[in-house]
Amino acid sequence: MLAQIEGSQAVAESVVLCRPEVIAAYPISPQTHIVERLSRMVKHGDVGRCQYLNVESEFAALSVLIGASATGARTYTATTSQGLLFMAEAVYNAAGLGLPIVMTIANRAVGAPINIWNDHSDSMALRDAGWVQLYAETNQEAADLHIQAFRLAEELSCPVMVCMDGYILTHAYEAVDMPAQSLVDAFLPPYSPVQVLDPKAPISIGAMVGPEAFTEVKYLAHHQYLRALALIPEVAGAFAQQFQRLSGGLCSPYRMEGASIAVVALGSVIGTIKEAIDELRLDGIAVGCVKIGCYRPFPMVQLRGTLEGVTRVIVVEKDLAVGMGGIVSADVRMALQGLPIPIHTVIAGLGGRSIPKSSLKQMVQDARAERLSEPHFLDLNRTVIDNELMRRRDQRQAGPMAEQVIRAVNAIGTKVV
Amino acid sequence: MNRKPFAITLDPNSSLANHTGNWRTMKPVYVDRLPPCNQACPAGENIQAWLYHAEEGAYEEAWRRLIEDNPMPAIHGRVCYHPCETACNRGQLDEAVSIRAVERFLGDQAILHGWQVPCAPPTGKRVLIVGAGPSGLSAAYHLTRMGHAVTIHEAAAKVGGMMRYGIPAYRLPRNIVEAEVARIEAMGVTIRLNTRVEDLDATIKTGGFHATFLAVGAHLARRIDIPGVDAKRMLDAATFLSRMESPFPYKLGRRVAVYGGGNTAIDVARTAERLGAEPVIIYRRDAVQAPAFKEEVAEAAEEGVRFHWLRAITKADHDKLTVEVMEMDEQGKPKPTGRFETIEADTVILALGQKADTGFLRNIQGIRVSDDGTIEVDECMMTGHPGLFAGGDMVPGEQSVSMATGHGKRAARHIDAYLRGTLYVKPPVHPLATFDRLNGWYYTDAEQSKQPILALARRRATFEEMVGGLDAGTALLEARRCLSCGNCFECDNCYAVCPDNAVIKLGAGNRFAFNYDYCKGCGLCAEECPCGAIDMVKDLK
Amino acid sequence: MPEQRIKFYQTGTYTAGNRLLNEEARTVQSRMDRTNSLNSGHRACQGCGEALGARYAVDAAMRAAHDRLIAVNATGCLEVFSSPYPESAWQIPWMHSVFGNAPAVASGVAAALRAKGREDVKVIAQGGDGATVDIGFGCLSGMFERNDDVLYLCYDNEAYMNTGIQRSGATPPFARTNTTQAVGETPGNLPSTGKNLPRIAMAHGIPYVATASVADLHDLEAKVTRAMAVQGARYLHIHVPCPLGWGSDPAHTIKVARMAVESGLFPLFEAQFGTVVDRMPIRHKVSVEQYLELQDRFKHLFGPPRNTDAIAAIQAIADANIATYGLTA
Question: Which residue in A123, A91, A93 sits closest to A106, CA to CA?
């Protein structure tokens, strides 16, 4: 049923359709609308015997789910940014124990400076924790990915993060087609755990493993994790069949036919990129884009297959590996290893800075003209930077860099945001 | 479940593959130690063992365990001077277990319910016992249980020896003596009263006895000469006390002086008190040195007996005694001071000890009689004459009912071995269960149960039994005060406190075993064993 | 008394078992069919108080729960010595996640059971003092205030033992640890530091809070049993000496714990909904020296020169406990 609905509400309703049994969450912007909605529905009795726990931290939220999942419950939480980092230890632990928890990341920048707006710094920080990471382009996809995520998680015995851009998706009202419960039930069977805490058949979960077997444990985890690369398209296909709609998958090309330039990105920015590509195509520039729908495990082979015909790749990413550059682009580079394709890293949209279509078009032009620095920071305010750098040359000043930048910005009367 | 994740998830209980026992350098072992009460018991009772049954209220079982060693618990429960209680470790915690009171309770239960003693099939061997006192009766009892045919020759008109003729009835009612002797007789022991053995050889030959046990006691009073005393007014304690059993007791004067400081002197004075006299006790040493039990001295004083300590009688006039005041020298011996006093007395009773009348043995080959009249015996209680054994007050050593009863048991074992042509080998004795080996924390604080005492007025005027028995409830609680020193009583502490579950509980009555596969040798079990029944020893692997 | 004392003179009251008592009145630990939830072959040190306390408590909980129990464990000695691959010493469903989240994991287990309509299965969480009073404190407080249906068992050995004896918020004043060494102006742990978690637990107003000691098995089991009969968040703080960390003889583990109780340094009490409702009186009062002298971690107090001020300060703590809880009455 098509509804004009806020992204967060769509996700919440989608999660409810999956019949979760335990939800635990700690509020953090911009995840709040999801969990508020869920808590209301649970309290209202719309979610069966589902338990909703108002916990004291994100660390507790995921820890609650670790216990619940090990007891055989279907579990869900949502968080973002600082919250995700605060639960980091449990994030690794859930993956290590093979617990099929589904977690929404309402992607947001990580401080300091504190910033509540969107980028991918948070989920990128935990990309190697052993969770499957799916990135939604639209609210429809965000809603759909949750249904797929539970099936994936439970088939793989592996936790799944569904990443959706904070505010841009979570707070945006769009038309979303909410599927019928019966269809979801048919798509997603009840959770049947591979191991469960059960007095009738006791086991010890979470043993200490020493050097004699730790490598093997990790190898097996890696091996299991890579199965997702086969399973994700399968699940996306099954989803399409059941719901008559394409959602998810490893990576999705857009206008890549005959493209010599490919823009690679994750999440909602794909929408703007598509529009920019449409206009650039009208200008006769052979450009297409590839959406990475599953970032972990990284679809190395599939991406290489999609990109190997182009002459230039621009990776637009909402994160920064400080002192190194791109995170996604490093992975893309690995995927295209040995191919003579220049790969540009474009850092964009940090801390919620908008990514205008015009900037993206300019970026493509600059790339063609070899005018992109490496990495390239989209729409960087050079004046601020130059002033600050000049001031630093004059005086060594202690203190947080952020404050000094703001001071510098104010000094020249320019607004950052 | 083979779907379980490798290594991260483990099967329950799989740690049993890890034998932590190889960490150990010391290991615990269960031991049995000799409880101090048992060690101290002259009758050789296993007190801790019979208390164990009594704690359950299993009185008959307790009694049966008791009479394996001592056939006369009702008597001992009244007159034993209970060295067991002096030795009792509980005395260092609060107060000793009132073992004697429980023993008396069990003995009285046996009389009440008429419990009888089974005997082994007859062996065809005949044993003569001379004397039906505690030692003779004890030997008769044990030998009869073993299947031998016993005949006792007793010179007196009634059985009991010193139990009847030496101990006053207010301490040991005669019906108790009779009941316990009757039970022994019922086993098949023949007792010939009024049968003094004059010619031992002839008696043995005529009776066809294969062995003989002499237990004639010590009935001859030691006497001293006191100048001026007239024979009519001076008598000895043994004679006085034994005449109490005849229809014609002595007629005493009003002022009776008892000379001596032992238990017999007290018995005599208290008997005199009950006969209406005003007894005084005169003793050469002080109260501390007097061999009488302090408790009895105190009881006598309560009843009105007066004491003149550090006084020696030097002469007697017709109704008074001249006594010299003594003082203790550095060696702790009394020495005369040259100062004299007079004490009014119309009767003097000497309580200076007794010796055996062993004249009838002078001509027996191999018998050695000491200067004091006692008969020398070897470690098997046998005299120098083969097949002739002796015990009780007539052999050297402490003179008491309990000691005599113990002699009877020991003699019986050796006589039995002699009759079988073997040697009785005493089982090895466990090392002592000392107080420092106990963990006192586990025992509840509990005061000794007190026995009821007859009202003073009746104590002074009658021969009714002075001390009453415990009732069943009190006897049970008193038995439960036993610490079970050095012997496992299955409190489950070792089983509980082992952090490695390395103690195996074998079930009621079967105690415990160590599982050395897992025991790390920490020693907690030994430390927390209340009764000290676990030793830690070097583990030589 | 937190527990009905039996009037048996010999040993019935304080020893684990007694043949004179009926089966039901004996401790769980005296039973042949006790669960041995934590079984042999674990790698705890000789005389480990925590291994003992854990088996005491969990076996009692198992009995109270009719063997339908799930245990969650924080990282720490208990976790490491009980479950190193390839061997687990647990005979019950057991789970370890991380150091600081055991209460939350247990909340999750309880929530899952509720969601599945399996309220017949009970949940316990267990951790050492580090996991409880320090790193897991936030999760513990959350579990408390939500009144989640979990019994949390803290095995308090008063420092981080698993990592090699470092100070925790439960380390007592003047105790030497490897991060509060016996050097400098105030050797050992600083006085007037640390926290009293049972009191903090009480401040949450949860239905049941109690302290227990491996030195008093009857009391400990009675408290576990009572706690298991209560719905909601429950907290039991169990004093478990660590021979390695305390520098005490492994054979003295229970003795040391007993001295802590008998000196008043570790008061045994019970609280309901934030109010102390009962306490275990001291049987045979001892001075704090008798407790301290058994442990090398306090050796520096006995000199030379003897630190009389410090010993007096510790005695004052014991005296204050005795007064606060009425331990001599």
Answer: A123
Give the burial class of B226: count Cβ atoms within 10 A of its Cβ; 0-12 exposed, 13-18 middle, 19 or more buried: middle
Contact flag B10-A194 (C-beta cutoff 8 Å): no
Task: Output the pLDDT for position C2.
Answer: 38
CA dihedral B157, B158, B164, B170 (to 10 degrees): -110
Q: Which residues of B409-430 are buried (b: 16+ CB within 10 A; e: fewer)?
A: bbbbbbbbebbeeeeeeeeeee
Query: What DSSP designation does A385 have?
Result: H
Residue owning tokens 């968040």: C233
pLDDT, tens digit (0-9, with 9 covering 90-100), for A235-248: 999 999 999 999 99
Alpha carbon of C67: minimum distance to chain A alpha carbons (Å): 7
Q: Mean pLDDT for each 10-residue chunk of chain B (541 residues)? A: 80 95 96 97 96 94 97 97 95 92 98 96 97 97 98 95 94 96 96 95 95 93 81 85 88 90 95 94 92 92 95 87 92 91 92 87 87 89 95 92 96 97 93 95 84 92 93 90 93 97 95 97 97 94 68
Which domains, from first to last, does chain A contain? 2-243 (3.40.50.970), 251-377 (3.40.50.920), 387-416 (no CATH)
Is residue A385 within 8 Å of A282, Cβ to Cβ?
Answer: no
Token pair recorded at residue C14: 């304080």
Q: Which residue type does C255 have? A: K
- Cα-Cα-Cα-Cα torsion B105, B106, B111, B112, nearest 10 degrees, comes to 70
Write phi, then psi, for B282 (nearest 5 degrees). -115, 130
What is the SS3 assignment for A223? helix
- What is the separation of C-alpha A130 from the centre of its chain, rounded to a whole number of angstroms? 14
| Helix or strand holding residue C73 (H, E) | strand C69-73
> Chain-wide mean pLDDT for chain A?
95
Identity of the residue numbered B317: D
Phi, psi of A174 (to 5 degrees): -140, 165
H-helix or E-strand spanning residue C160: none
Residues 6+ apart with CB under 8 A from B388: B211, B212, B214, B364, B366, B367, B382
Domain spans of chain C, in order of start: 21-325
Contact between chains at A67 and C90 (C-beta distance less than 8 A): no
Which segments of B174-269 are extended strands (E)?
190-192, 211-214, 220-221, 234-236, 255-259
Which residues in chain B touch residue C251, judged by CB atoms under 8 angstroms apart?
A: 522-524, 526-527, 536
Beta bridge partners of A296: A133
Torsional sign, CA B32, B522, C32, B16: negative
Write out pLDDT tens, residues C189-201. 999 999 999 999 9
Per-residue pLDDT tens for C207-253? 999 999 999 999 999 999 999 999 999 999 999 999 999 999 999 99
Element (H, E) at B324: strand B320-328
Q: Please give the Cα distance from A416 to B224 (Å, whole number).
A: 129
Does residue A30 have a cis bond before it (omega within 30 degrees)? yes
Does the beta-carbon distance from A64 to C68 stay under 8 Å?
Answer: no
- Which residues from C are below 8 Å from B517, CB to CB? 40
Alpha-carbon distance C266 to nearest alpha carbon in chain A (angstroms): 30
Residue C282: C-alpha distances to residues C1, C156, C264 (Å): 11, 20, 7
How distant, in Å, are the alpha carbons of A234, A356, B458 from that of B461?
Answer: 112, 125, 5
Q: C21-325 domain in CATH 3.40.50.1950?
A: no
Give the closest residue to A73 by CA, choosing from B83, C109, C306.
C109
Quick one: CA torsion of A323, A327, A329, A334, rounded to 10 degrees? 100
What CA–CA distances, in Å, run from A51 to A18, A21, A144, B62, C279? 14, 6, 23, 63, 37
For chain C, count helices (H), then strands (E): 11, 8
